[in-house]
Design a protein that fits this description.
Blueprint (H helix, E strand, L loop, with lengths): L8 H17 L11 H7 L11 H12 L21 H13 L10 H17 L7 E5 L2 H19 L4 H4 L8 E5 L4 H9 L6 E3 L9 H9 L5 E6 L11 H10 L3 E5 L24 E5 L11 E5 L3 H6 L26 H35 L5 E2 L7 E5 L3 H14 L5 E5 L2 E7 L7 H16 L1
Parallel strand pairs: 2-3, 2-4, 4-5, 5-6
Antiparallel strand pairs: 1-7, 6-7, 8-9, 9-11, 10-11
Pyridoxal-5'-phosphate (PLP) binds next to α6.
């Protein structure tokens, strides 16, 4: 029997009520959670009840229990890690994705959500200045986008070397050399590990963390055989971009596959003002980015793009019980059953429009510059990076003092900037990734840093 039409009413009404009250609390709410995970786990450690509970009550109970443990991540005053907020249209679309419950793997079975994802993919290629005929996969995040893009590169490079890895595996085959900048993101190493490619050859980076093309050329010349070069668009600490065009050209001279990790930085391509940062990025072979960072859709949503037909060859699958055709989502992601996570991307892009996306990216970068200028005016503070995009790194004297200022800032609760280590020293890291951050948020954040530095 299909569920009664009113079976969902109470649960959905309760969810909408709690969602509204959470979102309404964000402008004034302190950022940190009030309870730790251990404290909450103890509270939640009741035995599973024997009998059923009313769905609406369950949603009420959940919202009540979890509220003290919520970090105000979607707040305009949150600048930790690289965390996007949620655009209203994207959130609404995400609710529909759950309600529709379409397992979006094959076109024939789920034409509605597949077509929406296809439209979103086309818009993305256009906005990001990528080849119009490239394959696009909506995956869980940039970790999996890196994994998938690198899987495509591995497949293509081994194929070109005459090694049938699909049948024979990696053992006994030619070694695929991987070269990556010294300041690559950790998830790249994880993806290489999952792929059995081992640790990359590390290429020297400059003071902003950009891979040096000369050093890449030397390293490539020192070896031979199949190779993958990993470039980065957006350094976690400085926001800096590897010299994508020149580095890709050198890599291609040596027959390498070029993969770009642009988890948050690839979006510079959508801004006429900032596009120079990624110059030449379209000459690469695969690209990874996130929609849940710069584009501000709900978790989880990453995007992999690759030149045809490497993605399908690397991760596509065939099964007798599926009714498959060309362009099935299952052919561009390393999963079968999947959420239609490209639908909130469509909604975000449709609500912003081309200039809206450019404005969003420009605003994030402008807010980062304003926060950097504010921090630089705090006595004893020093901004360590050239703020070209959305990331700022600051120090407050020696490591001990920087750590103390960061700890006081987090305890203050008005804003959140995470601590890290960069180029051998402790830093306070700022990542401006939320669409809703406004001038008042920037001013409040700078004031909070000033208080923490004075305390
Ligand atoms: C965030 C990030 C990743 C990992 O992305 P997830 O969405 O967390 O999986 C990879 N590379 C860079 C540069 C990032 O900023």
């Amino acid at each position: 029997m299909t569920a009664r039409p009113d079976a969902y009413d109470e649960a959905l009404s309760a969810a909408a009520r709690h969602a509204r009250s959470w979102l309404a609390s964000l402008p004034d709410r302190p950022i940190p959670p009030r309870l730790t995970a251990d404290e909450l786990a103890a509270e939640l450690a009741e035995p599973l009840p024997d009998g059923p509970t009313d769905p609406g009550k369950v949603v009420d109970l959940l919202a009540e229990l979890v509220e003290p443990g919520l970090m105000a991540m979607p707040s305009g005053r949150f600048f930790g890690w690289v965390i996007g907020g949620t655009l209203p249209a994207a959130l609404g679309a995400d609710w529909l994705v759950s309600s529709w419950d379409q397992n979006t793997a094959i076109r024939f079975a789920t034409p509605g959500t597949t077509a929406v994802e296809q439209a979103a993919a086309g818009w993305l290629l256009d906005l990001l200045g990528l080849p119009a005929d490239a394959e696009v996969g909506f995956v869980t995040g940039a970790t999996m986008a890196n994994f998938t893009g690198l899987a495509a590169g591995r497949r293509q490079q081994l194929d070109a070397a005459g090694w049938d890895a699909d049948r024979l595996g990696l053992a006994g085959g030619p070694r695929v050399r991987v070269l990556a900048g010294a300041e690559r993101h950790e998830t790249l190493d994880a993806a290489l590990r999952y792929l059995g490619l081992g640790a990359p050859t590390e290429i020297r980076a400059d003071a902003e963390g950009r891979l040096e093309t000369d050093a890449l050329a030397e390293a490539l010349a020192a070896g031979s055989g199949p190779a993958i070069v990993c470039l980065q668009a957006g350094n976690l600490h400085s926001g800096a971009f590897d010299p994508l065009g020149p580095a890709a050209a050198v890599a291609h001279e040596h027959g390498a596959w070029v993969h770009v990790d642009g988890a948050f930085g690839l979006w510079a391509a959508a801004s006429p003002r900032l596009r120079h940062l990624v110059a030449g990025h379209e000459t690469a072979d695969s690209w990874a980015t996130d929609a849940h960072k710069t584009l501000n859709v709900p978790y989880d949503c990453g995007i992999v793009v690759a030149r045809r037909p490497a993605l399908r060859a690397a991760v596509g699958m065939r099964a007798s019980y599926l009714v498959q055709g060309a362009g099935d989502p299952v052919d561009s992601v390393p999963e079968l059953s999947r959420r239609a996570r490209g639908v909130p991307v469509w909604a975000a892009l449709r609500s912003l429009g081309r200039t809206g996306v450019a404005d969003l990216v420009d605003r994030l970068a402008a807010n980062a510059r304003a926060i950097a200028a504010g921090i630089a005016s705090v006595p004893g503070a020093q901004v360590l990076n050239d703020v070209v995009f959305t990331q700022v790194c600051a120090a407050f004297g020696d490591d001990e003092r920087t750590r103390a200022v960061t700890a006081r800032l987090l305890a203050d609760g008005v804003t959140w900037m995470s601590g890290s280590r960069w180029r051998g020293r402790d830093v306070m890291r700022v990542s401006v990734s939320n669409w809703s951050t406004d001038d008042a948020d920037v001013a409040a954040a700078v004031d909070a840093v000033r208080r923490a530095a004075a305390g």
